[in-house]
Amino acid sequence: MTVKTRANAAKKHEKCENGENAQYLAINPDEIAKLQEESKKIPYKMEIVWRNVALFGALHFGAAIGLYQLIFDAKWPTVLFTFMMYVLGGFGITAGAHRLWSHKSYKAKTPMRVFLMLLNNIALQNDIIEWARDHRCHHKWTDTDADPHNTTRGFFFAHMGWLLVRKHPQVKEAGAKLDLSDLLSDPVLVFQRKHYFPLVILSCFVFPTIVPVYFWGESALVAFYTAAVFRYAFTLHATWCINSAAHYFGWKPYDHSISPVENVFTTIAAVGEGGHNFHHTFPQDYRTSEYSMKFNWTRVLIDSAAAIGLVYDRKTASQEMINRQVDSHGSHDHWKKSMM
């Protein structure tokens, strides 16, 4: 992407309804240009992390067993429970690590923060502080070498390859400059980071195995491979599709100059996160898209929590601001698809 198109993209971050002067994590075109020039001077050779390759290989082998058992061996309550665990773990990423902690797009009281942190453990995608740091890098420096899953390095790299190789030096350098004080001062996140290993082992693998065995007499192996291993792998790929498919396959109703797109499949698979062209255009809007609530399950969760007083200060882009953006950099024909 050229500096000019990034400059155009930056113009959209004018003002949120809540009165803030600029959208959080908005692109700075001058900084992007500087990073791109610096990257050319950095000697870099991709180094495979074979331990991660082995771990992901074993996970996908186990997930294949789990998928077979889910279709042919598992009891119906196990199938439903597997789906429920997938949705709950997904909320821990989408409503928690992503919209609340990475983008600060709404505020939540302590019980809600604890609830989302516990759900996040089910997903096992690094602790929230580390997840949010990588995601903030992705938004501030999209499609540069400071972006952990830089799409210019190919679909597979953006999907999962970035977890199989050493990080580019610019990711580490840029990430170290981010202000993470809001995350490091949150006692809920500090607790998670301190106790992360036992929390994720219990939440991601032990709990999903014990419940089907104890409550409806499922085989321990079937419960483990379906509700734990297969569900975990599926959650990972649903999340990774936002980094890959949602930058390649879809339409751009809000900004033609950026790589993120609107993708209904990823919206459904990732419980409401597929409105990616909208999200990168208005990164602090808690909805992350204009898809209706039948697709945006995460918005339903946040709005429901707000209705009982656990969530407040939900940030949105005004309709006037969205209309201006569509007029100047998007497409009204494509915009209608996002209003389904």
TrEMBL record:
Keywords: Fatty acid biosynthesis, Fatty acid metabolism, Lipid biosynthesis, Lipid metabolism, Membrane, Oxidoreductase, Transmembrane, Transmembrane helix. Signal peptide: none annotated. The keyword Zinc does not apply. The keyword Cell wall biogenesis/degradation does not apply. The histidine box domains are involved in binding the catalytic metal ions. It is found in: Membrane. GO terms for cellular component: endoplasmic reticulum membrane. It is a multi-pass membrane protein. It comes from Caenorhabditis angaria. GO terms for molecular function: iron ion binding; stearoyl-CoA 9-desaturase activity. One of its GO terms (biological process) is unsaturated fatty acid biosynthetic process. InterPro entries: Acyl-CoA_DS. The chain crosses the membrane at residues 49-71, 83-101, 196-216, 222-242. Its cofactor is Fe(2+). Belongs to the fatty acid desaturase type 1 family. This is Fatty acid desaturase domain-containing protein. Its main location: membrane.
